[in-house]
Design brief:
Structural class: mainly alpha
Shape: elongated
Number of helices: 8
Mean pLDDT: 80
CATH superfamily of the largest domain: RNA polymerase sigma factor, region 2, helix turn helix motif
Low-confidence stretches: 117-127, 213-224
Distance between the termini: 25 Å
Length: 224
């Protein structure tokens, strides 16, 4: 049987033996799935430069091959097509890990709100490309932390937070919105609570990132 006719599970088992022909079929069959997952996730972090996408796709293959193909070796085929969802998860995690690493290297465990949403301030024409990427990484982390804290029923809290930090609304202006049903003191209390909670959540994640041991993978000279 040719590799192109193999089931997904049989093909993966062949790849575990480092069979070059099997890996050629693996790339032909799954490269688009991996590439699209990388692109979509990088888009959420607001950086889809071609060179970076190519690196992240390569890093996904490296991740799959690391530690004697540990991820592939331990994957359970509950259905034969489950490999597609698995590869999307691996690629997505590789992208998230990359951008979080950038955040950790720049800021360590220190989280400041001063650089999150300066849209209410005058434009900053001198912002460099790398500074813009770093700011976008921080914005994305704030969004994730806020959602984790407030959950699906926290729409009002998220609205208050974004009106203040993204649009520059004062507590008084927010309190004037009738559908929120909050006094000025209520808005101020919510903003203070959310700011502390988001900072604590981001600080905990950054501390975990800083203290984590780098994962040992295969050589960067991999043909993938």
């Amino acid at each position: 049987m040719s590799y192109s006719q193999m089931s997904h599970s049989d093909l993966v088992r062949a790849c575990l033996t480092s069979n070059e022909d099997a890996w050629n079929e693996f790339r032909a069959r799954y490269h688009q799935t991996i590439s699209l997952a990388v692109l979509r996730t990088a888009y959420r972090w607001r950086d889809t430069s071609k060179g970076l996408l190519e690196d992240l796709i390569g890093d996904t293959y490296v991740k799959l091959c690391a530690n004697n193909f540990d991820l592939l070796r331990n994957f359970e085929f509950r259905t034969d097509n489950a490999i597609y969802g698995f590869l999307k998860v691996v690629a997505t995690n590789v992208v998230h890990d990359y951008f979080r690493h950038i955040r950790c290297k720049k800021h360590g465990t220190e989280v400041s709100f001063d650089e999150i949403y300066p849209s209410a301030d005058p434009p900053i024409p001198s912002r460099t490309g790398s500074e813009e990427i770093e700011r976008n990484v921080l914005i994305r982390e704030v969004e994730e932390a806020l959602w984790e804290i407030t959950g699906p029923d926290g729409e009002r809290d998220r609205t208050i937070f974004w009106l203040h930090h993204r649009q520059g609304f004062t507590a008084e202006a927010i309190a004037e919105l009738p559908y929120l049903h909050l006094s000025v003191k209520g808005v101020e209390s919510a903003l203070h609570r959310l700011k502390i909670a988001v900072q604590d959540r981001m600080t905990d994640k950054a501390a975990t990132c800083v203290t984590a041991e780098p994962e040992k993978g295969v050589s960067e000279e991999s043909s993938f």
